[in-house]
Structures are given as structure tokens and as C-alpha cells.
Design a protein that fits this description.
Blueprint lengths: L4 E7 L5 E7 L2 H13 L3 H6 L2 E7 L10 E2 L2
Parallel strand pairs: 2-4
Antiparallel strand pairs: 1-2, 1-3
Length: about 70
Amino acid sequence: MKKTIWVNEQIDPSGLIYACIACCNESQAQHCHESFKNNLSDVQLAAGWTARIRTVESWDDVPVNSLKLN
């Protein structure tokens, strides 16, 4: 059985992950994504910061520096 892990990331203009939270609960992941998007300031958005959500099937595919919620 495949497991879906939701990965939320805030990424700076150079492509570095500034913040990352991963979890298995889609509702919690969507809430986190909205929070990540809403917390980016106009200055950050203008500079190229982004918030993205993606899915992976293994904890091995989650960035090492992420907060992992089970």
C-alpha cells in the first residue's frame, strides 16, 4: 500500500528551502500550505519567495531539515 506524505515548503529566491513541514494528513497539510502562503510578506513575494505543496511516497524523499508530523 502506498503512503502519501504531504510536504510543505517555503523557498527563498535562490531555491533554498527556508521552512519545511511534512505530514500524512491532507487536511493538516492544506492548512499548513495556506499558512505558509499567507505568511509571505509582499516584499518576500516581490523578491521571488514561494510556498509550495507536493506529495511523496516515502519519508526518504522528505528533506532532512523538515519538521515531520506523523
